[in-house]
Amino acid sequence: RQRETVEPRSKIMERSLLISLVVILLNTFLESVIGSVVGPSLIFYIESVGGTKEDYGLITSVFFVGMTLLTTFFGRWVDSNGNKYQAPFAVTFILGIVGSIIYFLASVMPVGRWAVYVILVGRFITGAGIAGKCLLQSWIATAIPQEQLSTVFTIFSMVASFGQFVGPPLNRLVAEIDTSVAITSSFSIPINPYNSIGLLVAFNEALVWALFALFLKDPPSRKEEPLSTSNAGPAPQAGLKDILKALTHFDIAFPLVQNFVIMFNFTLFGVALAPVAETMLGWTPVQISNLAVVEAVVGIAGMAAMLCLTLRKTTDFTFIFIGNAIFVASGVLTYLWWRLDTATIVKFSLPLLLVNFGYPFSGPANQSSFTKAVSSRPETADSIGVLQGLYTQAFTIAGIVAPPFVTAFVMRDRKDIDLNSPYELTPWALYVPVTAFILIVGLLYEEFVLGKNELGFLPSKPEAASAEDEVSPDETSKLVKDKRNKSTRRSIVEVNQVFSRKYEVDRRMSAEVPINGVGIINPFETAYERKLKRELTRDKKEWEHLLKLDEEMDEMEKE
């Protein structure tokens, strides 16, 4: 009888989780579609109300500021309310609706600074709302078994890519909008291809909010409970001193720098795409969204190539080298080919397609290299969660500071570009190939001078005996102490952090590159990351068994 009552409940739970996943997938698809409409038109909207390219960079940056400031807030809200998502999502969608309506109303303001400020406020509030959408990754990390996470995130990445295919026809429809709404006999609100996007986004937010309220169910309370011992105190937290000490290791600091540079470099292509396409080829948002479809296909091809090479056990060094080499080539071609007097579709598009193909090589491999460096050191392994958060912040900070830099120093004023002065970008655009080349030099330095030796070209070093097998401070139970010299399993602190929801969300966020609707999401894990997860899963089971025995011994002693 007990089984008869439990099974239907579990089936109902599985069905509700499946429906919730479908709703989240639909949101991912619609977000991608909306992004392919907002991104190409943003600078044209800003210029239509009297803004400049510098305003465009600032507004792009402010969107990231809003997202960054509230991401932690929403995460802590869910952690503190018993894993309930409906209220945080309600605030998320309200922010999205309000921000989009403010964005729309900028066209009502007199042309000039106040209209630009209204767009800025609208994008900041919308970015704050997007921060709440990061809870979708948290929901998945909580509801989906660990061994299925990679598959689920892969599906979401593919759905986001397919969403860009709807961008061109939707942009064609939006381009035809030219009407107005009469408020009084003497005042009406114009609705055009630029401001109507605010209404489109607000409608999308309201629709998805209704679907979430009806069909999204809260996941079961924490599918993975953290390990703990009755004798152990709270897990030690890494402080500023620990983080600074970790950053003195080249193999930890270098991937952080590279993560910052990858985002900073990619920003040039995301921010400059629309204005350069208009000046160089006379493109509208419709043609720009057509190119976004090709970029999505090329990005998928890059992911597929990366996966094939991963199966051949290609090293992180090789992946990162290829990715940076592609950035060098693309950066040089961007400066040389983006010019008015020799403009062709091929010369404009090829640098962009190279970047989309190359990112899947450097991004995931750099994440893998960072994880490997942190987890292989006893003094940093227990800080893997904090350091992963720092790794993600390097990515986010680049998204904040790069757009103003690109619009102020790299992009030229379009009125100054003519056949006598044909270059679309200033020589500052060469920062992309220069920084990518410096990263290649750093990669070679680590491999051959510091002796990382991933390629195996250097003679192998004899392994020195060490006491690294000692347990971490929280492993204080009697049974664990007896096995201290025999165990090579990872610490409880490291296991808890890697299997935590925050760690999974941070790691996934650092693999996304979204700039004004032009972005890449790479959900795949490298061979090392999969190996690490297998080891940690095994160690977690061992710890659970040992700690259970330890508790039984305590009970026996009390008796």
Task: Give a description of the structure.
With 559 residues, this protein is an all-alpha fold. It has helices at 2-48, 53-80, 86-105, 113-133, 135-143, 149-163, 167-175, 196-215, 240-246, 250-281, 285-311, 316-337, 345-375, 378-381, 384-410, 431-449, 478-482, 492-498, 501-509, 527-558; strands at 179-182, 188-191, 512-515, 518-521. Strand 3 and strand 4 (518-521) form a beta hairpin. Helix 1 (2-48) runs antiparallel to helix 8 and helix 10 runs parallel beside helix 15 (384-410). The longest helix has 47 residues, at 2-48.
Helix/strand-derived category reads: mainly alpha
Helix content: 55-70%
Q: Please mark out the parts with pLDDT under 50 across 5 or more consecutive residues, or reply none.
A: 1-6, 229-235, 464-487
Could you state the order of secondary-structure elements as H and E? HHHHHHHEEHHHHHHHHHHHHEEH
Number of alpha- plus pi-helical segments: 20
Indicate the proportion of strand residues: under 5%
What is the topology, as strand order, of the major beta sheet? 1-2
Give the beta-strand count: 4
Mean pLDDT value:
80
**Estimated radius of gyration:** 26 Å
User: What is the overall silhouette?
Assistant: globular
Largest sheet: 2 strands, antiparallel
Q: Alpha-carbon distance between the termini? A: 35 Å
Spell out the blueprint of helices and strands.
Elements: H1 2-48, H2 53-80, H3 86-105, H4 113-133, H5 135-143, H6 149-163, H7 167-175, E1 179-182, E2 188-191, H8 196-215, H9 240-246, H10 250-281, H11 285-311, H12 316-337, H13 345-375, H14 378-381, H15 384-410, H16 431-449, H17 478-482, H18 492-498, H19 501-509, E3 512-515, E4 518-521, H20 527-558
Helix pairs in contact: 1-6, 1-7, 1-8, 1-11, 2-4, 2-15, 3-4, 3-8, 5-19, 7-11, 10-13, 10-15, 10-16, 11-13, 12-13, 12-16, 13-15, 15-19
